[in-house]
Amino acid sequence: MTARVRVKLLRAGAQLPVRATEHASGFDLHACIEAPVAVGQVPVVVGTGLAFEVPPGFDAQVRPRSGLARRGVLSTFGTLDADYRGELMVTLYTTAPGISYTVEPGDRIAQLVITQLADVRIDAAEELGETARGSGGHGSTGR
């Protein structure tokens, strides 16, 4: 059965998310703004003009677009919880001082990827099973 995500367009200029190609995993999110927004190293929040009803048991994540990332413009990863009904906002920033970018109304600014959540529970434990890696942390498995 296909899961349904309901989307409310909150204002003029809002666009439903769409997949750019048939097999794309993400749905493109568009800027719903009245005027251009300058993006630099200080994060800025850009509205999408959309509110979502994600079914319980599903995870909707905002992720960067590869085309913007190639130019040094990233969106922060974010999770759209199933009980949130406000506007989906996207935080954008550039990765270096010499990079500037301007978001125009209607620009594709991020992507939304929706997955089904695993049914898990978390239990406290006195001991954990042993592995070859053990407690080796950051960088412990190679370069």
Q: What topology emerges from the helices and strands here?
A:
Blueprint: E1 6-9, E2 26-30, E3 37-39, E4 44-53, E5 58-63, H1 66-69, E6 73-75, E7 78-80, E8 87-94, E9 101-103, E10 108-116
Describe this structure in a few short sentences.
By secondary structure, this protein is mainly β. 3% of the residues lie in helices and 38% in strands.
- CATH homologous superfamily label: Deoxyuridine triphosphatase (dUTPase)
> First CA to last CA: what distance?
43 Å
* Helical content class: under 10%
What is the chains' assembly state? single chain
State the domain count: 1
Describe this structure in words.
The protein has one helix at 66-69; strands at residues 6-9, 26-30, 37-39, 44-53, 58-63, 73-75, 78-80, 87-94, 101-103, 108-116. It is globular and about 55 Å long. A four-stranded antiparallel sheet has the order 1-4-8-6, with no helix packed on it. The longest helix has 4 residues, at 66-69. It has a single domain (6-116), classed as Deoxyuridine 5'-Triphosphate Nucleotidohydrolase, Chain A (Distorted Sandwich). The mean pLDDT is 94. It has one helix and ten strands, in the order βββββαβββββ. The protein is mainly β. The protein starts with 5 loop residues before the first strand and ends in a 27-residue tail after the last strand.
